[in-house]
Amino acid sequence: MSRDFDVVIIGAGPVGSTIAYYLSKKGLNVTLIEKKTQIGYPLQCAGILSKHIFQYNELPEEVIINTVQGAFLHTNDHILKVQKDENVAYIIDRIAYDEYLLKRALDNNVKIINKKAMDFDIENGITYLSDNEQISSKIIIGCDGYNSTLSKKMGNVQNNFNASQILAEIPQKSMEKYRNSTQSGNNYVDTYLNEEIQPGFLWIIPLKGNRYRVGLFSNQTHKQQDEFLKDFLNRNFEFEIIEKYKGFIPIFNDNINIVKNRAILIGDAAAQIKPTSGGGLLMAFDACKLACKHVCEAINKNNINILYDYQKEFLNRYQREFNYQFKVQKTLNLLSNEDLDYFFLKLKENDCEKLISKYGDMDMQSTLVKEFIKRGLIFKIMPTFLFKKIIKIFGFR
Questions:
Q1: CB-based contact 318:266 (threshold 8 Å)
Q2: DSSP of 12-71, one letter per residue?
Q3: What distance in Å separates the CA atoms of residue 339 and residue 194, rounded to the nearest whole number?
Q4: Alpha-carbon separation of residue 199 from 98, 123, 211, 262 (angstroms)
Q5: Res. 77: pLDDT tops 50
Q6: When comparing pLDDT for 69 and 396, which is higher?
Q7: In what order do the strands lie in the sheet with 188-192?
Q8: Are 329 and 278 in contact (CB under 8 A)?
Q9: Spatial distance between the Cα atoms of 330 and 252, rounded to a whole number of angstroms
Q10: What confidence score (pLDDT) does residue 254 get?
Q11: Which of 9, 13, 8 is nearest to 280 (CA)?
Q12: Which helix (H) or strand (E) holds 358?
């Protein structure tokens, strides 16, 4: 059967553009289907990437706004400060980054069709577009986000958290007062835990000057999140709101089919999201490399069953880490605001700021969890009445 393309990719965001680039570099005939005329809008990302980004993708200097050396971790009554000797993360202009990755793909012979993908025949590799046009391909890749049309066609039902974010001006003195520190500089992020927004959290990410991205994810509605953010800002800062954004964060589920017939999913469409932080771009870039390998092999050997090796390899690489993060999330979800204050107090008393600074990692949080378990700290920092529930969550014997 003659086909229009080797691979059709739905969505020209950072993940779609990256897998398109990889596949085109392997000599495949690739096209992107993108319904938006302007990539990256509206902004739906906190825009922070760990230092490991260079293991997975390019990051041009011109899209880097700021660097991160550490964090202030807050409950209502306590603050922990953790830091590294070197930069641990980059704060980026996500819109500029999306545009860079798309240009890189287009400069390497990837085509783009600015139409909406309406439906699919995943058995035969047919994509139906918004003007009744249809195109055929050997493989269809869904990089079309949390509400993926292709994922639904594959029989998936995904659950999501809501996320909201505000771009705000906050004077330096106001931020120093909140951190109880006059020597923190502008290279620290802040996180805030509160029972109302569990199992999510609130973040404050420093840009240039006095500008910050203040956001959260939770089970609340967007309206409730907006009210929570405004109340939080009013209680803690002098501030001016510049812009507001809202979005959705998929919840990882290993029962989701990320491969079916001639279709595969990557990124938010595959719910490839870290449970504790709601981030997932580096993991999605890694998944692009895995998918590229198996897509090329499936096409070269004319055997689409090889695509299922992509799902197996992804789960083998990340499922154990996800399980640790879900355990952490379930444990924190047990805590009231009073319990969270107790938890932070005990972390301070047990000198855990140094431990978190040494072993904490944005991407592989299981390293820190294992260290807490190995040192017997779990039951030193948690309220005693929760011990039975924590034992059950972690499976301690």
A1: no
A2: -SHHHHHHHHHHHHTT--EEEE---SSTTPSP-S--EEEGGGGGTS---GGGEEEEE-EE
A3: 10
A4: 29, 38, 27, 35
A5: yes
A6: 69
A7: 79-83, 70-74, 188-192, 202-206, 211-218, 160-169, 240-250
A8: no
A9: 14
A10: 86
A11: 13
A12: helix 352-359
The DSSP line for 111-134 is: EEE-S-EEEEETTTTEEEETTS-E
130-146 pLDDT, tens digit each:
988 999 999 999 999 99
- What is the band of 1 on the pLDDT scale with cuts at 50, 70, 90? very low
What gap in Å lies between CA 76 and CA 20, rounded to an integer?
Answer: 45
Q: What is the mean pLDDT of residues 256-279?
A: 95
The CA distance from 163 to 201, in Å, is: 10
- Pick from 39, 33, 38: which is nearest to 131 by CA? 33
Q: Look-up: residue for tokens 């910050």?
A: 212
**CA 46 – CA 50 distance, rounded (Å):** 12
* 8 A C-beta contact, residue 337 and residue 195: yes
The residue among 53, 55, 85, 54 whose CA lies nearest residue 70 is 85
- 278, 246, 258: which is closest to 143 by C-alpha? 258
pTM score of the predicted model: 0.94
C-alpha 296/C-alpha 275 separation (Å) is 30
Whole-number Å distance between alpha carbons of 235 and 96: 33
* Whole-number pLDDT of residue 233: 97
Residue 202 tokens, joined: 């609130």
SS3 of residue 141 by DSSP: strand
Sign of CA dihedral 64, 65, 71, 75: negative
User: Per residue in 206-254, pLDDT tens?
Assistant: 999 999 999 999 999 999 999 999 999 999 999 999 999 999 999 999 8
Within 10 angstroms of residue 227's Cβ, the number of other Cβ atoms is 13
3-state secondary structure (DSSP) of residue 160: strand
